[in-house]
Amino acid sequence: MDVVEMQQVLESIGKKARRASAALAVLPADAKTLCLNCMADAIVKHAGEIAEANARDIANARCNGMDEAKIDRLTLTMARIEAMADGLRQVAAQKDPVGKVLSENIRPNGLKITKIAVPFGVIGIIYEARPNVTADAAGICIKAGNAVILRGGKEAFESNTSIARVLNESAAGCGLPDGVVQLIPWTDREAVKLMLKMDRYIDLVIPRGGEGLIRTVVAEATMPVLKHYKGVCHLFVDAQCDMDKAVKIIVNAKCSRPAVCNALETLLIDRSILPEFAPKIAAELLQKGVELRGDAAFCNLVPQALPAVEDDYHAEYLSLILAVKSVDGVDDAVEHINTYGSRHSDGILSTIEENIAYFTKNVDSSTVYVNASTRFTDGGEFGMGAEIGISTDKLHARGPMGTDELTTYKYIVTGDGQVR
Q: Global pTM?
């Protein structure tokens, strides 16, 4: 299909989404809840065909040499398909954010000014190899009163097409407007470029994927972008801590699912406990197959570790590789995180209250942990149900983004004949 034909199809998609968004914006809360529960039931009902489509994607990925960490992100097990449905049900059960009164005041002249939450309108989402995003994005956008235009990666094209079809049919069966959930039917880059110029129809675009994709979207989009670049997540082991708990937390943060953005990428260890703690944590991580890349002090204590270079401390590995560095106290740890981190998720493992307070106040990240794994940075774990992504921006949302983060606001000003 040539560019002109693509533009025509995208124009049709945009018009349908705009019309659907107008109807969704005023749809009663109970109607949206009913639809989302029907969509969840449909995902379960059609789990077999979704799994078959996903199997085709996985087979293609292996033929193209995709590494196992990325294949894990692509894979939809029956448990993950059930989790998609559960995420939709959790979103359905949440309080509707649309119409929420954010503030209210009466001016000296008698004007009543009410600030209320309203949908954005149409949200475009561009994402890569995680097909569960198709259901998560559709559900959370509908709950917040938005139509959604999805553009998934080529790796998950079959999966995304199957999931989107199920969701579209289910939504239509519940009486939702045609075009409330649409999937761009091509995977080539030209489609993305054209989509990013659709500011006439798309009010906000959210990219989910690698840093290269996100930077491209930021550079080319003519509408606002809500983004997260990458997850260079840190844990700092303080001079005083519960070492057994610290080991457990670190292993979980690095190894439970290394290919996700909230996985641990750099471990910082206070120099005063390095001789005791470095061999202890290294033994556990090496047993799990983790490749360690450390500074000179760490490598002297752990001969299996490779010498780290500067780029290692900037890296989002998304695999079983961990950068390790010794630091001189909590202030040095904070400086390292604010220099090398990505403002995603960073934590301190400590029993020193003063250091904990300093760390939480001074680390400039969307989510800061105290004695817990970074793996909890997730919409489901935060009680949001499905999430639209994790923002490392400071405007308009930060951290895991749920339904509240997919609304904007407007002012209703009520008077009784006032003039200025």
A: 0.84
